[in-house]
Amino acid sequence: MCQDLTQCRVPPFTERPSGPGNPGDLEPRVLARGVLGRAAMKRALLLVLASLGVSASAIACSGAVESTPAAAAVVPEAAPPVQREAGVTPPEEKPPVRDVNAPLVIDLGKVAHGQDVTLKVPVGALGFNVVVESKNGGTDVVGIERITSPSGEVVHELFTPKGGSHATSESSFGSIASASVPQSEAKSANTPEPGTWTIRIGGAGGIGGGGDSDAGTLGPATLHAEARIQMGSTTGFAGGRLDVNVFVPTGVKLGNKTLDSESAATNEGIASRLDTFFNALSEHVGIDRGDVTFLPVKAQLKYVDDYDLLLEAFAASTGRPDNQSLSIMLTNGIDLDGGGAWGIAPGIPGVPARSGTPMSGIVLAIGDTPAVGDGLTMLHEAGHFFGLNHTTEFYGGYADPLGDTPRCDDISLDDPTSFQKCPDKKNVMFPAFYGTAGSAVVVSDAQRAVFRGSPIYKAYKDPLPAMSTMGAHTSKKAAGERITLARSGRALTPVETWLSASLCGHASHGKLDPAAFAGAQGRPQTIDALRAAAVDADLPEVMRKKASAALRALTP
Ligand SMILES: [Zn+2]
To answer: Of 23, 79, 363, 546, which residue is the least packed, with the fewest Cβ within 10 Å?
Structure first.
């Protein structure tokens, strides 16, 4: 009886066809973005709009800079904040308190566009992340162009993980960019080969910058690069725990409650959303629930309807010390350029364990969407933040770099029935939330490796004597739940499914095209169905707004 609800969540950053075959494409496009500045940033923002969806059956030397872990500047953990377990629903069993590895933070120093920097990765690393940012700020486009392993394998090229179809490591939100290893199935990335890795800093060089990095012309060292290495146990990944900072704008609503950071900490609805998120993370990835801390953020962020607010939302952790935790800002709506979104991540990956940057956190819209849907949307956005692409994109024939996630060749945003035929529809990173919940949610082995390689969580230092619980951390269970976006639990109509799929706001690729949809499905019927949906209290507000916007487009 359930049907497809779909959810379009965070589409990728930039959609350039990439690969060794078209290096010439790099410079013009980068320059264009540099010139366009804010406008380009806006477009890029749209690319990343995550979103919604639920379905009933249905989102870096003038001489290489070399650093070793021994020389690492370890960023201190934050002073222990006041923590309140989100929880009216206490976890059934608390995970044992286990020792965690200290974060390995390596300052790569000042770097220039086009410069190669080296990073020594020790034995036992599960993954690492590199962040480059401009000290000029503003419109300086920066990026991580290439990552080469000690044995010479290029695991990241043209700002794209090996095997990927589009770039993910160029700045879109502010002058900061991020890339992780692994983000692909490259052999020397899984797990990272110990030894000296080489990272080429890219980007257009900004004003007075170096331009084409491949030409070997370095610009002034106006950038700064930093790496974080995630270390596992002596036997590899042995689990870990993820701390979460929940940022709550004063006045945000959930159901009939108006919340702030104090009341959110004891709100049952918030607790159930976090429970869904943590349960799924534990079951499918093997990372346990850590500390949850509720923090206030300014009231204006209770509705994110322009880009400045979105940047503030991503940087909700401003003023807090860097630490290994995921920042999630709750809001009542993400509505940019008429495109509503359920959730949004600032990049693939985001900037882990750093506070206050325009890529430091994810944003989730709550209000009248189902708790389970919110929890899973949180996991989807976290997936982007940890380094995962959508399994398939709605446009361009693009897909993720991972071979063990099927791609959907026939996906079409104008045909909601196409989602049902997609072999990747149950994957947590499917671009439209299909309504799959519980154990039926699929996370592939390669996706798990990406999650586990991120330095954002606290990895356990030692393996348990018996890894009895780790067997459950696969996605092979057949049983599963279905959830729907309709309050009543009914299946969504085709028009509603289309609306839910469109909650990602990409201006040119993932955005709804009401005229095309009406042309394919029948204009009068489409208009009637949209009028009904626009006022249907059974549907979440974000879908009613989408219906209204589509109606305006069809009936000016
Ligand atoms: Zn997404």
So the answer is: 79
Measured in Å, residue 381 CA sits from the centre of ligand 1 at 6
Is 318 domain-assigned? yes
Tell me the CA distances in angstroms from 23 to 34, 160, 443, 511, one per residue in order.
18, 12, 32, 28
How far, in Å, from the CA of 58 to the mean position of ligand 1? 17
Distance between Cα 385 and ligand 1 center (Å): 10
Tell me the residue type at 392. T
On whether residue 517 sits in a domain, the answer given is no
How close is the Cα of 431 to the center of ligand 1, in Å? 5
Tokens 């490591």, residue located: 169
CA–CA distances in Å: residue 106 to residues 1, 290, 476: 53, 24, 38
How much is the pLDDT for 52? 39
Whether residue 441 lies inside any domain: the answer is yes
For 71-153, list the strands marked E by DSSP.
Answer: 104-111, 116-121, 125-134, 143-148
Q: Are 126 and 230 in contact (CB under 8 A)?
A: yes
Same domain? 250 vs 337: yes
pLDDT per residue as tens digits for the range 234-279: 999 999 999 999 999 999 999 999 999 999 999 999 999 999 999 9
Tell me which H or E stretch contains 328. strand 326-331
Using the mean position of ligand 1's atoms as its centre, give its distance from the Cα of residue 543 in Å: 17
